Amino acid sequence: MTKVRELILHRGLSSGSKLPSSRDLSRQLAISRNTVINAYDRLISEGYLEVKGKAGIFVSEQIPETALSISTASVDAEQRAFSVTSNKIMPLRHRSPLLYQRPKERLELDFRIGRPAASSFPERLWTRLIVEKMASSGRRMTEYGNPAGLEELRVAIAAHLATARGIRAHADQVIVVAGCEEGLNLIAKVLSPPGSTVYVENPCYKGVPFVFESYGASIVPISVDDEGLCVDELVERERGIICVTPSHQFPLGVTMSLSRRLKVLQWANSMGTYVVEDDYDSDFRYDGSPLPALAGLDKSGSVIYIGTFSKSIGAGLRVGYLVVPEELIGPVREAKALLNNGNPWLEQAVIAEFLSSGGFRSHLRQIRQTYLKRRNTLLEQLRAHFNEITIMGEGGGMHLTWILPDSIYNARALQYECLHVGVGIYSIDDSPAIDFNNMHLRERAIFFGYPCLSETEIVTACKRLAAAATRVLR
Ligand SMILES: Cc1ncc(COP(=O)(O)O)c(C=O)c1O
């Protein structure tokens, strides 16, 4: 299996090229034909190969050429850095935003990224609040509301952000949206005309470049290192919106240092542009005290803040919010009104009550404890099975990054091996992240979302993972 995979990956067979028949290859490699057939089957299921009817088996057209010439030479420290960036404008039109394809059957032990535990949803309380709100709804189910969102909810969000994230904003600056995704669309609609430039982190959440590109913007990736966005790469570049995840960089998990935060604010202010801060999972911080949000440091009105309840309560709610600088209140409200005239009243009323009654605070306290224990179990298990481990992003959020040891063949191979034993782990290509020509990450990074598995399940999953790893050694 490994020999056949190496033949494809290391001998630089280009995508679309035909493979020898199983008989010929078994002779060439002096291995049994059954081994070759099994290997071909596996590589077909992993997407490396595809069958074209009677014409034979071919290297998949989907594999980028760059992935077909992986060097086995040991990588030096510089190559290992995750800041390899082409810094070119990256047209995404040839890349599908739907690359993230999960197996059809539900995985038994799935380290899904970015999902809260299903059991954490406060079902009973929610049901009670819905009934209460309906009982007092009056005409609000038949009337249009404020497109910017329910007043009570905007007030509650502003109060929450002041204490939790150090953001001083009044309720008018808050625009309730259907999750970060709608927030990004509104920002793009208002601020990113065709031909404008948008700087994104490399790697980043897939939604960001795809949304902005869909409005005609040119996407320019900027490297990320262990202090977050490499702001120096912006110097002498043209004006453009910058999209960042300072609290817990997506997907690597690094926290942007204070000096970088100040630098990016300074750059945006001097260029007269905006920084979009996606603060998607900052409700979870386990080690050290959290830095305030970038929007909390901003004195010049340069930050557009995006928050979401997808991670802290549930993605099914589809509720998030923007906090915009004063001069954008009008244009963003107008764009929201034109788009859909505001979010449904009932869900907003329930969330407002949840926040203002203190329910949200105690919910967060509870799930933070649960996630902390799950994160600790995962770290202990990885250490127990793999000794020295390189981990990033474990200090907060809902996922962490494991940089594979050299002994393991590569991230995708391990991911697929785990798939066969019911364990879901994620390489960057199969995650909600996108990277721009960063081969090291593609090859070596594995992402684990840990909220959805109990401690016992994490122990079982790691046992299976360790056994799977022995099957993908170099
Ligand atoms: C970094 C990041 N931003 C935004 C989102 C989307 O959030 P929402 O559900 O609020 O659209 C995600 C979802 O996984 C994410 O990981």
Structural class: alpha/beta
> Which ions and ligands are bound to the chains?
pyridoxal-5'-phosphate
Helix content: 25-40%
Strand order of the largest sheet: 4-12-11-10-9-5-7-8
Q: Round the Cα radius of gyration to an integer and report it.
A: 24 Å
Strand content: 5-15%
Distance between the termini: 11 Å
- Tally of domains: 3
Major beta sheet summary: 8 strands, mixed
Number of distinct helices: 17
What is the count of β-strands? 18
Structure description:
With 474 residues, this protein is of the alpha/beta class. It has helices spanning 2-10, 22-29, 33-46, 77-80, 123-135, 151-165, 179-191, 207-214, 258-271, 294-297, 310-314, 329-340, 345-356, 359-386, 411-419, 439-444, 455-469, and strands at residues 49-51, 57-59, 109-110, 174-177, 197-202, 204-205, 218-225, 228-229, 241-244, 275-278, 303-308, 320-323, 390-392, 399-403, 423-424, 426-427, 433-434, 445-449. The chain has 3 domains: 2-67, Arc Repressor Mutant, subunit A, CATH 1.10.10; 75-85 and 96-117 and 363-472, Alpha-Beta Complex (Aspartate Aminotransferase, domain 1), CATH 3.90.1150.10; 122-359, Aspartate Aminotransferase, domain 2 (3-Layer(aba) Sandwich), CATH 3.40.640. 40% of the residues lie in helices and 14% in strands. Strands 4-12-11-10-9-5-7-8 form an 8-stranded mixed beta sheet, sandwiched between helices. Helix 6 (151-165) packs across helix 13 (345-356). It is globular. Mean pLDDT is 88; it is low at 64-89. The structure holds pyridoxal-5'-phosphate.
